[in-house]
Amino acid sequence: MVSFFDNMKAMDANRYATKKTIAQGMLDIALLTANASQLKYILQVGEQHQFYKLMLILISLSIVMQVAAGILLVIQSLISIHNLKDRSIGFTLNHFVDAFIFFSVFCDVMKMNFGLDPAIPVQNKDDVEVFKP
Predict the structure, then answer these.
(1) Residue 7: C-alpha distances to residues 3, 12, 19, 20, 21 (Å)
(2) pTM above the 0.85 mark?
(3) Would residue 129 count as lying in a domain?
(4) What distance in Å separates the CA atoms of residue 77 and residue 95, rounded to the nearest whole number?
(5) Is residue 92 part of a domain?
(6) Burial of 73 by CB count in 10 Å (0-12 exposed, 13-18 middle, 19+ buried)?
(7) How far apart are CA 36 and CA 91, in angstroms?
(8) Residues 122 and 49 sit within 8 Å (Cβ to Cβ)
(9) TM segments (predicted)?
C-alpha cells in the first residue's frame, strides 16, 4: 500500500513550482484589472476627488509594481529548479516578486483608506451628489 508520504516524494517539484507561479500570475492579473478600473474612475472624477493626486500616485505605483512582478513571474517560470545555479536565481527572483507584490498590496490598502468606496458620494462643483458606478 502506498502511503501519503510516498506520494509526496513522487510529486514533481518543478510541476508544483510552475502551477504556483501560474496561480500567482492569475491573482496578479485580477489585481491589475481592479487597479485599471480604479484608475479609470479616478481619472474620470479628476480633481474633484479629495485625494486625487495621492490616489493617482498609489494606483500608478501599484500598477507598475504589478507589471514588474508579472514580468519576473514569467522569467521565473522559465527557470528549472533541478539545476543548483538556476535554483538560486529562482529563489532570488522569488524574493523580488514577493517584495513587489507586498508593496503593491500595501499601496492598495493605503488607497482603500483614502476613499475609493463606491458607497460614498462625491460632491461635484454644482453641489450635486454623484454616486460612483
Answers:
(1) 7, 10, 18, 19, 22
(2) no
(3) no
(4) 14
(5) yes
(6) buried
(7) 30
(8) yes
(9) 52-75
pLDDT tens sequence for the chain (133 residues): 555 555 555 667 778 877 887 887 687 788 888 889 888 988 888 888 788 888 899 999 999 998 898 898 888 888 877 888 888 888 899 899 999 989 998 988 888 887 655 545 555 555 555 455 4
Cell numbers describing residue 75: 522569467
pLDDT at 103: 92
CA 53 to chain centre: 21
The CA-atom distances, in angstroms, between 33 and each of 70, 75, 118, 123 are 13, 21, 17, 26
Q: Which domain holds residue 21?
A: 1-114
The count of domains in the chain is 1
